[in-house]
């Protein structure tokens, strides 16, 4: 079935779409109450975030826009030290969107939400003119435990910098799909709750965390360097990149440091906790290629420096020019 | 300036857009931290909701998509008895969107948020192909005070039904703008916090509340009748409709009972509190035309009945067929 403007009218077609696709897949007591707002248990400190997803194509090796829309928002909550609890989702559908694709996307969201331990508590659907596009906004609410303080501004000299796995996978997968290049690159799109909990439970002193998305690792580390007025020193040989992505980047002249992932995080932790953090990451479901990639120093404040295999020092600038739009 | 795909790349153009338009207008400490999630004070019971806004045209008499996107979500929180606290906003911009229009919309959101007492704590911007459209998702978090229980399922025989003002204004304003009909009809788009607080502070026993939006009053009252397994009896002569909207509806064969508002609510309150609720509404900024329009009975459970001026009884069905899409 093709989506028509009638599905966005608020009338019977809208109800049928909601009942037939969203309620069926997201089925839970809170959502089924169908009130204007969901009333849910709270906590004294909340993390709140939002992200819209416009990825093209909707389905790609390793995921789809639905999985992405849950992972992206769940990971943003986790990076503030919060335990993700509730998601809202707003669908904007273009006329002509395929309801079977929409159902696959909803099922994928539901499955990812279950894995991530979050409940979809509120939703909304609108239809616009267009040519079959599907866009999703998710907003998330998480609980921040007492005492947890994680911020880009808390990095200190001596801290270690880790990344949870290979860089550039999602970006390279989307680009391959869009350029119709056949290869074995798969998006790393994944929720990182297990990994973060593992570090928290082991007592790792985490200073800052970010998921590595649009703009890549370089952009995140620049934010850390600026917010903490410190220097991030990286060792190039420690940066994990898969052979396939390395080859793909070589071919197209891309730098994995600027490429987006959707299931990778970077963490700055107390220097003495580096090995503990590494072992937590590596034992986690999506962290086997995790690595300690550098440390925080006072060398050149506000900058990110990379030591090359030949011993040279390269200043890593922010993303100059433009990345690839619609990768998330 | 026209929005280009580069504004959605996550690179420098995106930052400039965020800093130049959103940060400037939404300026607050929480948002300015620019972390992945906002960490804010919480409460033991939360209301959570989301809504996307795709109204066409973007600017209309009485409001614009920005004002609408704040009012819609704030009102949904209020209707659950919550005090609205935080909003997130996700912009999806089509290529070619006008940055000056976007700035006007952001300024309008900021002003409405101030009036409604909510803080915009997180945001996101994406760009898609298209022809200049602007779409906004807002999600909202509110605090629900202990003891407050408001739900469509709590209506009881003897309760009174009120509406806070004239029906159909927003719908008629959008339709007029779209059909390029010149008249004096203005959208009623407004946040209803003052009105709800006034009733709560006066001790009105509120059973159920809903803002009257897509689908109109008939749709909301049907939800009450179904959820509470009761009969909603209305008196046609008590339904407030402005002369202009009455004339407009007569001309086009529309029924104000099915038309959307964006600054009106209906409330079911204990019968003895009807006059108190009415006086609270009428004293509020957006409630001067409020009226007691009917009561809850056990007559025909699950139905909405309307007594006509001639004493006949009309069964008010749900919205059959389709309303006007893209009114919100």
Give a short summary of the structure.
Chain A contains nine helices and 13 strands. Chain A is of the alpha+beta class and 328 residues long.
Detailed description of the structure:
Chains A, B: Belongs to the HypE family. Chains A, B: This is Hydrogenase expression/formation protein HypE. Chains A, B: Residues 35-144 form the PurM-like N-terminal domain. The structure is a homodimer of 328-residue chains. The first copy, chain A, has 328 residues and is an alpha+beta fold. Chain A has 2 domains: 5-143, PurM-like, N-terminal domain (60s Ribosomal Protein L30, Chain: A, 2-Layer Sandwich), CATH 3.30.1330.10; 152-316, PurM-like C-terminal domain (Phosphoribosyl-aminoimidazole Synthetase, Chain A, domain 2, Alpha-Beta Complex), CATH 3.90.650.10. The first copy, chain A, is 32% helix and 27% strand. In chain A, the strands form 3 sheets. A 7-stranded mixed beta sheet of chain A has the order 8-10-7-11-9-12-13. In chain A, strands 1-6-4-5 form a 4-stranded mixed beta sheet. In chain A, strands 2-3 form a two-stranded antiparallel sheet. In chain A, α1 (12-26) packs parallel to α4 (99-116), α3 (65-79) runs parallel beside α4 (99-116) and α6 runs antiparallel to α9. At the A-B interface, β1, α3, β4, β5 and β6 of A face β1, α3, β4, β5 and β6 of B.
Task: Describe the secondary-structure layout.
2 copies of one chain form a homodimer.
Chain A: H1 12-26, H2 29-32, E1 38-53, E2 59-60, E3 63-64, H3 65-79, E4 83-94, H4 99-116, E5 119-128, E6 134-143, E7 160-163, H5 169-179, H6 193-201, E8 206-211, H7 216-228, E9 231-235, H8 243-252, E10 265-269, H9 274-283, E11 291-297, E12 304-307, E13 313-316
Parallel strand pairs in A: 4-5, 9-12
Antiparallel strand pairs in A: 1-6, 2-3, 4-6, 7-10, 7-11, 8-10, 9-11, 12-13
Helix pairs in contact in A: 1-4, 3-4, 6-9
């Amino acid at each position: 079935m093709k989506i028509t403007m009638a599905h966005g009218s608020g009338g019977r077609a809208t109800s049928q779409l909601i009942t037939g696709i969203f309620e069926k897949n997201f089925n839970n007591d809170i959502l089924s109450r169908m009130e204007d707002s969901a009333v849910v248990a709270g906590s004294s400190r909340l993390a709140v975030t939002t992200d819209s997803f416009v990825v093209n194509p909707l389905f790609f090796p390793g995921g789809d826009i639905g999985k992405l829309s849950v992972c992206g928002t769940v990971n943003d909550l986790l990076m503030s030290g919060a335990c993700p609890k509730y998601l809202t989702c707003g669908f904007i559908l273009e006329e002509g969107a395929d309801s079977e694709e929409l159902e696959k996307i909803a099922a994928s969201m539901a499955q990812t939400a279950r894995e991530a331990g979050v409940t979809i508590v509120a939703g909304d659907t609108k239809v616009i003119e267009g040519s079959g596009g599907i866009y999703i906004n998710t907003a998330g609410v998480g609980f921040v435990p007492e005492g947890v303080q994680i911020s880009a501004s808390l990095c200190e000299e001596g801290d270690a910098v880790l990344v949870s796995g290979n860089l550039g996978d999602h970006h390279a997968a989307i680009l391959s799909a869009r350029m119709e290049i056949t290869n074995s690159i798969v998006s790393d799109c994944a929720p990182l709750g297990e990994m973060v909990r593992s570090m928290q439970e082991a007592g790792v002193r985490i200073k800052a965390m970010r998921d590595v998305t649009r703009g890549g690792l370089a952009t995140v580390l620049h934010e850390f360097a600026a917010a903490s007025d410190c220097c991030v020193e990286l060792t190039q040989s420690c940066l994990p990149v898969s052979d396939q992505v390395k080859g793909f980047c070589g071919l197209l002249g891309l730098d994995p440091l600027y490429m987006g992932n959707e299931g990778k995080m970077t963490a700055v932790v107390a220097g003495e906790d580096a090995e503990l953090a590494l072992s937590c990451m590596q034992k986690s479901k999506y962290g086997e290629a995790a690595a300690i990639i550098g440390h925080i120093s006072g060398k050149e404040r506000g900058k990110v420096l990379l030591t090359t295999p030949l011993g040279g020092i390269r200043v890593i600038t922010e993303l100059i020019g433009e990345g690839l739009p619609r990768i998330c």
